[in-house]
Amino acid sequence: MGKKFLIAGNWKMYKNAAESRAFIQELGQTFKAQAGLEVVVFPPFTALAGLRNQDAKIKIGAQNMFYEEKGAFTGEISPVMLQELVDYVLIGHSERREIFKESDADVSKKVRAALQFKLSPVLCVGETLQEREAGKTMAKIKNQLEKAAQGLENYEMSKIVVAYEPIWAIGTGRNATPAQAQEVHHFIKGTWQQMAPGRNLQILYGGSVKPENSLELLAQEDISGVLVGGASLKVEQFSAIIHNCAELLKK
Fold it and tell me: 161-170 as b/e, with b when 16 or more CB fall inside 10 Å?
């Protein structure tokens, strides 16, 4: 297929440090390294240091970060602190935007800071149910992409991964059909090409991804990975998604 896949697990506010280490150890035994397949997990901050170099097949990411290098920002984590611990960082997840009121301007600063400190940003975009029903999906996503990438150079754009997560499908058991997801991914790809001509973009789908629907989602032309929530907390389910992806790569 020539496509490169990224299978990502966002653990949100689950698993302490010991549980995280045990999970990585167990998960690593369920699959082999394979060209075209990258696996990354996003544990809580408290688990990051203990996971460094635990399994070369499994990359580690942070679920969030602040955009300043250091300073009087109680409770925040800077990109410099994450540099030695992770490869990836989730930015603008819908829960950060919706619950913690992160603005598009905050997201843009975080993307810039991640790139500055050689972290790979996974930029999350997506619409609410009301926006989808009002036909505003594409306008919302275009706006989120443009604001997040404001002022970036063309070469920097190729270092960003985008995750499309329809907010109405996160943790609800509802998910976009593969055709609905592909339609938005195709739109994101086209928008990115206009913003950064000639730069490829890896786009993940996130929103109630499970072993049962992962194969059909990953088979879509413009879906090059998944951002898994609940199913990434169970080794059996997460490894089943990884195996589905491995099977696709053989075709």
Answer: bbbbbbbbbb
pLDDT tens digit sequence for 35-70: 999 999 999 999 999 999 999 999 999 999 999 999
Q: How many folded domains does the chain comprise? A: 1
Tell me the average pLDDT of the chain. 96
Which parts of the chain sit beneath pLDDT 70? 1
Q: What is the domain range of residue 174?
A: 5-250
Find the CATH number of the domain harbouring 126: 3.20.20.70
User: What pLDDT, on the 0 to 100 scale, is given for residue 51?
Assistant: 97
Tally: H helices and E strands in the chain: 11, 8
The catalytically annotated residue of 93, 95, 102, 185 is: 93
The verdict on whether 93 is a catalytic residue reads yes
> What is the signed CA dihedral for 149, 104, 178, 250, rounded to 10 degrees?
40
**How far is Cα 172 from Cα 207, in angstroms, rounded to an integer?**
8
Q: Is 165 a catalytic residue?
A: yes
| Distance spanning both ends of the chain, measured CA to CA | 7
